[in-house]
Amino acid sequence: MKQTAKLLVAAIAAAMPFAASAEPAAKPLKALLIIGGCCHDYATQKEILPAGIAERANIQVDVCYSADKTTKATFSCYDKPDWAAGYDVIIHDECSADVKDLAIVNRILEPHRKGVPAVNLHCAMHCYRTSPDFGKPLASGTDGSLWFDFLGIQSSGHGAQLPIEVTYLDAANPVSKGLENWTTIKEELYNNISIHPSAKPLARGKQGTTETVVAWTNEYGDKKTRVFSTTLGHNNETVSDKRYLDLVTRGLLWSCNKLDTDGKPLPGYGRPAAPTR
Predict the structure, then answer these.
(1) What pLDDT score does 15 carry?
(2) How far apart (Å, rounded) are the C-alpha atoms in residues 261 and 179?
(3) Higher pLDDT, 185 or 271
(4) What radius of gyration, in Å, describes the C-alpha atoms of the chain?
(5) Confidence at residue 142, expressed as pLDDT on a 0 to 100 scale
(6) Alpha-helix runs per DSSP H in the chain
(7) 109-168 pLDDT, tens per residue?
(8) Sheet architecture: strand order including 225-230
């Protein structure tokens, strides 16, 4: 009986993708969440995301928040030329579609060109649209495609909020391995104007007859910087969903090369065990 109980406990632990590790924790990864701008409840989501990520992995998330609710929101953390110094990964969750200054966009992209990994969430896909022609495919390497080259997919808009059927495409990819297909609440399905050769789709979303890529990885620039993105995550209920947070945390760990081939954090980077008393 005792042996059966031990086997059951072991099986449950193995099935948990972000189980607490018995090994000593490594130094936490340092992430900077840049969040704010138009059209979303960022004041709440800036609390949901750091807590959800920290529950799943050994990651410390600092927050750079703008209360500006317009499409021209700017962020104080971008003011310094070395704005990303000291961080292992940047999480872009801003909604600043009408910030078009090339100098600002290049300053934001510079650390990523030098190899700082990134995670991009939802409206980050519609930021920094420096070309008025963002609704049609733009040539890579041009000023108009700066942000889309970084993302790996060009998107220009979305339809009505309806549930999205999410289907994972790459069962062998460590980011999506073992994750189950699911259907969101009413959410925005972003279009795909173009998918760059450097991007690897991980999941598709479907609303009625419309299907687009909703999660992917990208290797950006000469350094082949690891970049994970998902267009999911408009509403608080989705952002706080276990399935969403699992996906985002895996994407973050992958971007930092801290995810093993089975989709589990490398030793020391899983959820730290609770202290014993």
Answers:
(1) 42
(2) 13
(3) 185
(4) 19
(5) 96
(6) 2-15, 42-54, 102-113, 146-151, 236-239, 242-255
(7) 999 999 999 999 999 999 999 999 999 999 999 999 999 999 999 999 999 999 999 999
(8) 59-66, 29-37, 89-95, 118-121, 225-230, 210-220, 199-207, 162-168, 182-187
Query: Mean pLDDT throughout 34-52?
Result: 97
Find the mean pLDDT for residues 163-191: 97
| Number of CB atoms found within 10 A of residue 48's CB | 17
Q: Which CATH number is associated with domain 26-255?
A: 3.40.50.880
Interior angle at CA 252, CA 251 and CA 255, nearest 5: 85
pLDDT tens digits for range 207-230 = 999 999 999 999 999 999 999 999
φ, ψ of residue 238 in degrees (nearest 5): -75, -45
Q: What is the mean pLDDT of residues 94-113?
A: 97
Bridge partners, residue 219, by sequence: 226
Give dist(CA 60, CA 76) in Å, integer.
Answer: 20
Pairing of strands 153-154, 194-195: antiparallel
Where do we find the tokens 């008025």? 132
Write out the two tokens for 27.
Answer: 């130094």
d(Cα 221, Cα 119) in Å, to the nearest integer? Answer: 15
Q: What is the pTM of this model?
A: 0.90
Residue 245 — left, alpha, or beta (φ > 0 → left; ψ -120 to 50 → alpha)? alpha
For the chain, what are the domain ranges? 26-255
Two tokens at 180? 């189950």
For the chain, what is the total number of helices (H) and then of strands (E)? 6, 11
List residues bridging with 39 in a β-sheet: none
Q: Are 157 and 210 in contact (CB under 8 A)?
A: no
Residue 47: CB atoms within 10 A of its CB come to: 13
What pLDDT score was predicted for residue 232? 98
